[in-house]
Predict the 3D structure of the following.
Amino acid sequence: MTSLVPKVVTFGEAMLRLVPPLNLRIEQAHSFTTFVGGGELNVAVGAARLGLNTEWVSRLPETPMGRLVLNRAREFGVETARVVWTPNDRVGLYFLEMGAAPRTHKVFYDRSGSAISKIRPGEVDWKAAFAGASLFHTSGITPALSPSVAEATTEALIAAKEAGLKVTYDLNYRVKLWTEAEAQKYNESIMQYVDVLITTEEDTERVFKVKEKNYDDVAKKLYDQFGFTAVAITLRDNLSVWRNDWTSIVYDGSKILRDMKYELECVDRLGGGDSYVAGFVYGWLTGDLDKANRYGNATCALKHSQHGDFSLSTLQEVEAVVAGGGNLRIER
Amino acid sequence: MTSLVPKVVTFGEAMLRLVPPLNLRIEQAHSFTTFVGGGELNVAVGAARLGLNTEWVSRLPETPMGRLVLNRAREFGVETARVVWTPNDRVGLYFLEMGAAPRTHKVFYDRSGSAISKIRPGEVDWKAAFAGASLFHTSGITPALSPSVAEATTEALIAAKEAGLKVTYDLNYRVKLWTEAEAQKYNESIMQYVDVLITTEEDTERVFKVKEKNYDDVAKKLYDQFGFTAVAITLRDNLSVWRNDWTSIVYDGSKILRDMKYELECVDRLGGGDSYVAGFVYGWLTGDLDKANRYGNATCALKHSQHGDFSLSTLQEVEAVVAGGGNLRIER
Amino acid sequence: MTSLVPKVVTFGEAMLRLVPPLNLRIEQAHSFTTFVGGGELNVAVGAARLGLNTEWVSRLPETPMGRLVLNRAREFGVETARVVWTPNDRVGLYFLEMGAAPRTHKVFYDRSGSAISKIRPGEVDWKAAFAGASLFHTSGITPALSPSVAEATTEALIAAKEAGLKVTYDLNYRVKLWTEAEAQKYNESIMQYVDVLITTEEDTERVFKVKEKNYDDVAKKLYDQFGFTAVAITLRDNLSVWRNDWTSIVYDGSKILRDMKYELECVDRLGGGDSYVAGFVYGWLTGDLDKANRYGNATCALKHSQHGDFSLSTLQEVEAVVAGGGNLRIER
Amino acid sequence: MTSLVPKVVTFGEAMLRLVPPLNLRIEQAHSFTTFVGGGELNVAVGAARLGLNTEWVSRLPETPMGRLVLNRAREFGVETARVVWTPNDRVGLYFLEMGAAPRTHKVFYDRSGSAISKIRPGEVDWKAAFAGASLFHTSGITPALSPSVAEATTEALIAAKEAGLKVTYDLNYRVKLWTEAEAQKYNESIMQYVDVLITTEEDTERVFKVKEKNYDDVAKKLYDQFGFTAVAITLRDNLSVWRNDWTSIVYDGSKILRDMKYELECVDRLGGGDSYVAGFVYGWLTGDLDKANRYGNATCALKHSQHGDFSLSTLQEVEAVVAGGGNLRIER
Amino acid sequence: MTSLVPKVVTFGEAMLRLVPPLNLRIEQAHSFTTFVGGGELNVAVGAARLGLNTEWVSRLPETPMGRLVLNRAREFGVETARVVWTPNDRVGLYFLEMGAAPRTHKVFYDRSGSAISKIRPGEVDWKAAFAGASLFHTSGITPALSPSVAEATTEALIAAKEAGLKVTYDLNYRVKLWTEAEAQKYNESIMQYVDVLITTEEDTERVFKVKEKNYDDVAKKLYDQFGFTAVAITLRDNLSVWRNDWTSIVYDGSKILRDMKYELECVDRLGGGDSYVAGFVYGWLTGDLDKANRYGNATCALKHSQHGDFSLSTLQEVEAVVAGGGNLRIER
Amino acid sequence: MTSLVPKVVTFGEAMLRLVPPLNLRIEQAHSFTTFVGGGELNVAVGAARLGLNTEWVSRLPETPMGRLVLNRAREFGVETARVVWTPNDRVGLYFLEMGAAPRTHKVFYDRSGSAISKIRPGEVDWKAAFAGASLFHTSGITPALSPSVAEATTEALIAAKEAGLKVTYDLNYRVKLWTEAEAQKYNESIMQYVDVLITTEEDTERVFKVKEKNYDDVAKKLYDQFGFTAVAITLRDNLSVWRNDWTSIVYDGSKILRDMKYELECVDRLGGGDSYVAGFVYGWLTGDLDKANRYGNATCALKHSQHGDFSLSTLQEVEAVVAGGGNLRIER
């Protein structure tokens, strides 16, 4: 039975999130709630919840903290057999302060020297990982971690294309990790392996220097420049910290695919973009780009109501929202 | 002094509510906050807080879980001397996931085999329970628990009318407990004992197949069909999960009584309808149907700001809201 | 370096705040989260966070509860060397119930017999305290604590003026502590020592019997009556319990200084007015009255997103909001 | 049925206990777990759990804190109808630091000005309270609260004897409340109304200046001096903070009744002595002084394993221990 | 690499454990900490942590509570692909009260009607499950759940033997599930499929009516009666609730294998016996019966220091204790 | 007044401690309780609590995590004006698993790249720091952090001696930070600046290769080798994880000073050695070496009952234990 379920492989870092309870500032904190999160693991978990087979590839230290990350991945059904283990290095962390208007959420990374930042090409048997798989996903965070991770990312992308996989890529520019120039240089070098680019207007301007008069034109410009299968632009409107609007567009070379705008009550917006990718990947592998976009948005919308980096929505939940989830009555 | 305070008797199940903290999904939970709740106990507590004498009748197992339910009822001043105890059976539970738009709250019942579901006619001395009492309240959940509870409910209703009590009944259809046909058959058989029916447009359509073009007509149709003293229709507007509007109408055979619309910030909406009943009962027994409706709405509005199934508002708090509680300044 | 930083001295009570978790009512509580707060300590902490040197003067008992208050003041950089210690008396408390519309927040004071309420003139060496200081702040709560505290407050105000300090005064009328007549009599006697009065329209009506047709006129009337350097009127709009709007005006004798209106998501509004004072004091000592008002509002706006009585915003955070903090994107 | 159950009436103060979690010092605390406790309420709860009818008489303020105390009493089945309510005054508190060897537990009282400390003779209808009751219990803490409470205590004791009740009295000397001389004078004046004195060797030395060479002689001396029905001396051995030994003796005028020594793991020893009284009262009213002593010790031993001031043991649990509770296997 | 690791399959129920925090009684609880546990899942987790491949077979409902159980199994590396899913039924629960001497731990089961209690023969493809596996483990709890589970258990045992697996069986008599006679009848019928019986003196007396003058003779009697490969008798000494001693013996037909006695500080003893099995299985599959016994004891000893039903000890930790873990210095 | 209080300066790292609640393993953790700790800050806090003026010198990043460390130091009265701030680097962390016999506590450091590890000579104005100070304390952990910290440590030691301060040094060997050879080489080079060496038998063997037949001889050997004023050897006996015995000896060149053995219930033993130093320093500066030793032991004994790295005992508490703290009755 499971042989018919498409398999998705992702590659990237996962960190421990440490967040003070009750909107407390970090300086006030006497305890931290902890979650595990990282773009590509978030995608793997979110997609596994929707029913895909997913595998997450990374590098972790042989410590309780490393195993904690592993356990959270396994807990939600992600395969982890190809995680590379090292007796050295550390697990990256990020501290999070939850805001409320007019104070925004703040993320403080403490990820330097993490195990994955020291991965080198050749450590992962990508050929085996991709056997029977349908899609590979990574993001612009992974190659930004260090030059050796960038090399390993390129290696993985090439292997994915050689194995005939579809490739999705979330551009995700992180200013703390590399400069715009570095990001541009690397990302331009690997766009040839990417089928679907998922990004925001802001990131494309910073990384690819694309500035158009509206989202549609940004998508078209990127499509034309890199020859993708499609470009997805996610659109968030920060009405306040607790209320956001969300939608996205997809350009497939011939038309702009649009979806409804979701009005969100934000329990936790971190990982929202990754949950869009999870839904997108599910929709694409089981349907078409329009389904991808609509499932991406529904998965993302539901994620905002859930605590932690992961989307835990089930396929049934996502499909109820896609089908017109305006009903907010208690479900008994 | 207390002899002048009207007494209300209610009959039904109370369960342990298990809810993960922090909007977590049940699958993520490593702890559950627990409350005790159940429609008729909620009414008894809410009415006791407003100053009425109240007694709750039910059936509980002789276990710490059974006594936990008892303790919570006593804590807020509800009489429990006629609870039937059994060495067997269990306390029903419900698991709750708190949502945020577009994810709705979800209730997962685990109430099968509860002690009250096995109560049979003759186990409660209703004549004694109703001595000196003014009003009996139960809901459509109680008879749905099992055929024997349905029989016991009918027994109680008949005894209540024989003892000259007023009877309020909250139609509350629960699809997991019985079919619409079963609900219709039973409920039609006992409407003769009911003085005031409290319900929603949706439930009356499902149970009594009443479908009119507006709420007023639904109330009138029910009034005409069953010959009540009055019909109350509660009206909730789910603006989002965290924001609701609430009001209600009462039809007394000659006119539609209306009230202001309350704008609610929803800490916990479960038990909201029961708190309407609590306020309604207080207002009716100490005034008239218009007071009943207005106190019902104010009690219900305040309940939404309180955690747990019970309304803990005092009479002073309810009357401040009825008198025009638009003042949201800090009360010092 | 620190010799160039202006020093602010404040005088007043700080209490333990006891608040049930999760919006629970006090009657339901099995635990209380605790913070330390009190108008003048809140100002001292808020201003210290912005970079000023601050000292808080008070009276505390030699108990763990007294030291707990001391520790919280020191934790955020407030000098406490002149706190008066006593082997007797107690630390005042206040219990807090957090509301949600239509239920407002409620504060229940339990501060009778606190150590500071027994302070008498002569116990503090104000001359030493004010050496090198730029500004003294207290509020109408302090003299309301007891006649001896009122005398000590007057003593401090006189000493402040003799030492050439600027004096800010938050009128803050507390009906539980004294009558309007008592408040009027005392406050009128000490307005001669006050440079800037910070207040609300409501409090000025209750204390000074000033009732004008709009805020501007209230400020002008007070200015004319008492001969201040300036009058600040803070303006809060309780849209709901979770959402407030906030701004303020300052009248400097020649013009009304206005600022933008902030839309606030209220994690905790207690101490909001004090954080306005903290920002005002910082802005005034490092700029002018317009800067005072704008920094006051930004500091106050940010405070509403923070748990506890203290404003923990840094100067960098406040200045980002002043500069146009509409950006609610995650800061990474 | 309930008419055959003996009724016990107690009179005294109950406070909120505030204790930091996790053995934290008060100065470190950012939250407090809260319980309600006070000698005579502890006895009423403990005895109610064993099956007696119990009523607690006290005086409470009309605040959420006052109702919180009431609710906890009702929760465990104690009657509270004669509690005197006042719009003024406060609920007493005590802060608790839990120790570990060599640091002992520390209690910091904050009970001055509590509602009960202002009760005066005539406020309670003792005649009605004692109708149908079998026993009255109070302790040396109650009269120590204030002279007016002492008068009210004497009034209650006289009324109890007039109504034919048995009277138990726990000497409980509290140095913070009165001097040894005051305690001696008052206690000597009311021993004529006491049937059974329950105390420790240390307290009898401080209050009655009784110093003998062993416990037995202390009991005999007290018996001879005051003409009691019996004297109970409780014997605790503080092996460490986490491990205590406990037993007690009772002298009935003819012989010393002894019991086994219990080896205790101390989750919470506060209220231990009160739970001895609860078990004693149950045993005495349903048996004899030997049963009283043995049930007192078993109830006390079990209390040490329970968090909070109350003994929550059931009769079944106590009888299992009395019957030889050496079995520490898991009970399934 | 993983193909060389022995695989263990277990079959049985896992429940949600609900335990009040802080030694609170269930009647006092306002929250429950939750763990997942059940004998055979505990063994699977414990053995997986030591490095074996393990698979747990059970039946779960398609609810968040069912998936919660699944997730916890996966989290610690247990394979779950053959869990049978049902749209009906429930997850069993057990409530736990943690004791302290002289109050013992109490378990209150609420497992009636659980999904696994309705499993029938034929629902699991045991042949596939056992392909490549080395050992099958179940316990006397599984067949006690219902007659149909007993049939399914027999089916599994037969299949295991046919597939050439070793079989371990923990006798574990549960009086709430079946009578001694029922247990005897069933267990005698399936001992033919068991290679190693793991039990206690008490259970063998209740189930097999074996009563000898010492442990050694019990083991020999059982060995002779049923023709096992070996019999293990675990020996716990309840010094108190917080301190236990633990060891065990194994009889292999020729000699009694003994081990050191462990002195345990008991954070949580539930699941202790299962962790012995986990260590035993690891030791047996990678060595001999003496290694099995010593690894079983060390794993069990370490389990007592860990919260929850699962043993989370790593092989490295167990081997350090086996090698002489008397060193209690901090490991840095 | 404060000018008469001796001042102590310490230098070293402080980290965030992250510890799972409830004896949970790190792999199970969904939250971490957090404390701040580090040998030299622990000493500064412990000594400040006893009444000394103390200053802690370190290097911290300008982040909320850096300020969190600062705040905790200030909270308990430690001066921090000379902490060096950097826009780069991080705060070191350590994860802690609390054990229970036979599982020991485990510390997992994540301190690489911390701000202090990059401090260089010349960054601290030691001359100013030592003006008016009586004693300087650091430990063998500080120079082990990096070669540049070692240089800075030597610089501080030389400056301390030049300024006429007493110097105490806790040898504290950390195998994760440097080799025994590196530790020996550095420590031998700076022993000339040390007046009192505080250490354990184990550490002296590893660092100085001193192995004698008993503690006394170790102390004498060290004394003779390095020419100290005194050598203190602390002696811990791990009876179990929850129970330890503690004492120490001091050799002053002429005699071995001994003290009573403390029986400890261990809430948290981390920081125990540092609290010995805190008490030692207090006793020495206000008395002699015998007082130093006895106050050190009492402070250390009390620390074991307190959660977190800091000793929060007051002078009154320590002196009560020194005076014979065998009384474990509740202090009211």
Summary: The interface with chain D takes residues 22-25, 27-28, 99-107, 109, 174-176, 238, 240-242, 269-270 of chain E (CB under 8 Å). The longest strand of chain E covers residues 243-251.
